């Protein structure tokens, strides 16, 4: 599909009411196929690669407004007039922004492992400290790769090491991260830097809490209790939303459907039936 002549990859699967999925990053590609499989009896899921990423055309501009418009194009072609929306990590922020701008189009919002709306981003130093702690014996190699220009093979190795910190089970973390990196479609660092900088500016300049208070739709916030991003960062968002519920999944990190799939599926399916 296309928006402003930029080709966007998308795929749908499953049966039931439509549910649009927004992957995280920014600068990554869709890795939410396991979510599709978990929910295949409950929803027709629609996945897509954000512009410049994965199987979508590698071209800008990279910015929040442009990504919201791209999501709207996916919506028009595949979703329907009023549809549920799930976003993970950076994709949770994108989904929230879409719901704020197009509340009439969103029936349910599922905010998975996001990092909240606080303007000072006070969670980030805690994340960096927890990342280094979780990397454990892999810290030296990760630091060495972080400090230099990487070959394509080293770039994948660096990503797998970093992503391994997003899982609570140390014994399985590298395996889970390697599956995320397969197939390896390459990180768009230009996209990541541009969008992350804009998110930081947006939160410091806008009153997203007031926008969230005006949002009149049901919201489910899902966290993994072992996420290295501190979950108190999402408290102010939870308080600002008029109709929200929060579920914390034990034994799960940043990708809670991987390490606690049963409770993740139950929480999302129950919420979508409401």
UniProtKB/TrEMBL annotation:
Keywords associated with the record: Aminopeptidase, Hydrolase, Protease
InterPro entries: AB_hydrolase_1 (IPR000073), AB_hydrolase_fold (IPR029058), AB_hydrolase_sf (IPR050266), Peptidase_S33 (IPR002410)
Enzyme class: hydrolase
Domain AB hydrolase-1 residue range list: 17-260
EC number per UniProt: 3.4.11.5
Pfam families given in the database record: Abhydrolase_1
A molecular function GO annotation: aminopeptidase activity
Coiled coil: none
Keyword Hydrolase included in the entry's annotation: yes
Annotated family: Belongs to the peptidase S33 family.
Protein name: Proline iminopeptidase
Organism: Micromonospora vinacea
